[in-house]
Amino acid sequence: RGKMEEGKAYSPDGVFAHLEMLEARAHEAAVKQEETKQQEEKLARLKARVQELRLQRDELRAKVDLQQKGQLGKGGVVSDPAQPSARAVLEWKIKSVKAMLQVFYLTGISGKLTKRGVCFCISTAYEGTYLDSYYLDLLAKPEVQIHRHSVPVFIPLEQIAKKYLQTDIRRFLSVLSDHLNAYAGRRYQADQLQERFSDQIEGTLQRNSLCNLLVFNYNVSSKSKSFPFNVRLLYGDLCCSLPTEVIVSCTPDAPASLAETAAAHSDLFRRVALHEAFRSFGSAEEN
C-alpha cells in the first residue's frame, strides 16, 4: 500500500498537479506583495499631501488672522499695527463672501457681488418641486444692511435681520431660507389640495397670508355631497411645513361612528403633506 501511495504521489499527473498548486501559490504571493507595495506608496503620497495641506492651512490661518486685524498690507507684507490696512480688510471680506456664496449655492441660495455689496437669490422648493425665488440686495458699507428685497411682508425679516445680520450673515441667510421654504411648502400643499381635491372640500379652503392656519370641511369620498369632517391646522413652527396642532372634529349632523376616523385623520395630518393625506384617503376608499 505504501508503494502504491508513493507511486501515485510521483506519477506524472501528481507531479503536474503539485507544480500547478505551487505556481498558483507563488502567483498569489506575488500579487499580494505588489498590492502591499502599491498601498504603501499610496499611503506615503497621502501623508505627504496631508503635510502639504497642513502647511498651507497654517499659512492661510496666519494671513487671515493678520487680515482680520487689519495688519496685512499689499503683497502680504505686514504693515504698521497702528495703521490697519482698509484695503486688506476689504479684500478679506470679499474672499469670505465668495467662499460663502459657493457653500450656499448647494443649498438653494446663490448670489453675486455688486458695486455696493451682495445680491442674494433664495430659491424655494417642496419635495423636489421648484416653487419661487426671492431676492435680497445687501449693502456692505458702512455696515451690512438690507437695501432692497422681494421677501413677503408677513415673513419676519426684520426680526431675523436684527438677530443675525450684523453678527452672522450665514446664519441670517439660513434662517431666512428656512422661513421662506416652509412658507412655500405650506402654500404649495394648500394649493394642491384645492386644485386636486376640490370635490372633497366644502367651498374654499380658509387660510391666512402666511399659510400657517388652515380651516376647511371635507369628506373622504368624492361621490358624497356631505362634508362631515372639520379640520383646523396650526403651524406653530414657521420654519416647518407640517402642522404642530391638528384638530379634526365631526360636524353636528355627522354619524357618531366617524369619531374614530376623525382621530386617525388627525394623526395622519401631523405626519404627511395635505395632498398626500387626501391621496391616501382615495386609495383606502378604492380598496
From TrEMBL:
The keyword Nucleus appears for this protein: yes
Domain of life: Eukaryota
Pfam families, per the entry: CENP-O
Subcellular location: Chromosome, Centromere; Nucleus
A GO CC term attached to the entry: nucleus
Keyword vocabulary terms for this entry: Centromere, Chromosome, Coiled coil, Nucleus
Keyword RNA-binding among record annotations: no
InterPro entries: CENP-O
Major place of residence: nucleus
Coiled coil segments of this chain: 19-70
Family: Belongs to the CENP-O/MCM21 family.
Family annotation (PANTHER family): CENTROMERE PROTEIN O, INNER KINETOCHORE SUBUNIT MAL2
UniProt name for this protein: Centromere protein O
Organism encoding this protein: Cathartes aura
